[in-house]
Write a structure and sequence with these properties.
Layout (H helix, E strand, L loop, with lengths): L2 H6 L5 H9 L13 H19 L1 H7 L10 H15 L1 H4 L4 H15 L5 H12 L2 H5 L2 H14 L9 H7 L1 H22 L1 H4 L3
Helix pairs in contact: 2-3, 2-7, 3-12, 4-12, 5-10
Length: 198
Amino acid sequence: MNYLAHLFLARPTADSHFGNLLGDFRRGVDTNRFGNAVQLGLKNHYEVDRFTDSHESVLAAKVLFDKSRRRFAPVALDIYFDHLLIKHWTKFSTQCFDDFREQSFALLEQRLPTMPRTMQHSVGHMITHDWFEDYANEEGIAKAISVVAKRIRFPNTFHNAVDDIGKHQQEIEARFLAFFPDLIAHINDNSPENMDKS
């Protein structure tokens, strides 16, 4: 769900953007049918997720959620971390956010016809309805979490993750600011895409 972070850590090409989001839509998809550049983007996605899931600041942030919702904490954090990335954008990029968003959406649109059907639907919806505009404000985060809660196929209280975020907002933000520079440095040094300059 942390689409913005994955795009931020992709290379500025259509294949890289496709591959870096493909990781969230790979179920039931033969990813071997895609070209090398897309495959490298997909590997980059996996590396981002692996590093994120094991980082001490992310693990500490997950514990802040109520026990009844902790299994969903990674999803809520993915969404909220995208919000925090927008909030602190100038700390991490010299390109203005609006320009980055336009560029990323344009690159994704180039590959929409070749995306798996579920990915086409989600990415098309993200572009048309500008999810990142929603992610930029707290109300949009609550909306995104509510949408995810409705997709869960069993009774849940995931929508109340907004309360957990509100209660621990400052600590979660501090954890993000400790984590994200480490993620950037790790991907700069270890990304499969950065090791292949073709």
